[in-house]
Design brief:
Strand content: over 45%
Radius of gyration: 15 Å
Order of helices and strands: HEEEEEEEEE
Structural class: alpha+beta
Shape: flat
CATH topology: Outer Surface Protein A, domain 3
CATH class: Alpha Beta
CATH architecture: Alpha-Beta Complex
Number of domains: 1
Length: 124
């Protein structure tokens, strides 16, 4: 069962990353908002590409995804959170590729498992 949950979280992380990349393609300087005016995402662009800290939010205002872009590429630590604000994953990017630990957390925010990556490929 633990392998299934870890695999499920890895799939969720992958989908969030794909969603992030897809949404980052609509690069504009305006932040997007929900109907009530609260932010869907915040971040800046420079020369038409995402740059600096970007954050995506749940409707309740809690951060869903947070990470940095440098010249349009993911760089540094990226984190995902559940709708209550509990961390679910933490990963590190170098030049838009997953490098280092991918840490999966349980529902209490405690480390559940770690996987190592080099240039988007899991290192065994």
């Amino acid at each position: 069962m633990n392998n299934h949950n870890s695999f499920h979280k890895l799939i969720v992380v992958s989908l969030i990353i794909i969603w992030t990349i897809f949404n980052s393609q609509s690069r504009n300087k305006e932040n997007l908002n929900y109907e009530d005016g609260s932010s869907i995402r915040t971040g800046e662009t420079q020369n038409g590409v995402n740059n600096g800290l970007w954050q995506w939010y749940y409707k309740n205002g809690k951060v869903q995804l947070s990470g940095n872009f440098v010249a349009g590429k993911r760089e540094g630590v990226w984190k995902t959170f559940d709708s209550l604000g509990v961390i679910t994953t933490e990963s590190n990017y170098v030049d838009n590729k997953l490098n280092g630990d991918l840490i999966l957390y349980n529902e209490k925010g405690e480390v559940k498992s770690r996987k190592k990556f080099k240039d988007d490929i899991e290192v065994k």
